[in-house]
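Work Package 3 (structural annotation) set out to generate three-dimensional models for the target panel prioritized at the project kickoff. During this period the team completed the workflow that converts sequence records into discrete structure tokens, so that structures can be stored uniformly alongside our sequence database. As a representative example, we reproduce one entry of 118 residues exactly as it appears in the project archive.
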Amino acid sequence: MLEPGNNDELPAIPAKRYFTIGEVSELCGVKPHVLRYWEQEFPQVKPVKRRGNRRYYQRQDVILIRQIRSLLYEEGFTIGGARQRLSGDDAKEDLNQSQQVIHQVRLELEEVAQALKR
């Protein structure tokens, strides 16, 4: 979902189990209040809450937040469009299209292999 080019501007995700909201803010290039808002808008973002309601994000949460950031800021999706994209409706469509492309490439490669055998 996140193209490799989009990761260049963001820092690498350290090998830690949990991240505070401040750390995630820096890793994803968004402010903490935006992360709290996205928690309300995207049901997939569910940080662990410990005493004092402190949020602790896991690695997959950081990756998901980077995907949301990419959809909203770089690809121009609305909140609703990004939510739909992440919910899987469009993901199934993308998977189907990818499978069709793979099938077509496979057929073309088989034709090339046959031509080389001759």
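Residues 18 and 75 are 28 Å apart (CA to CA).
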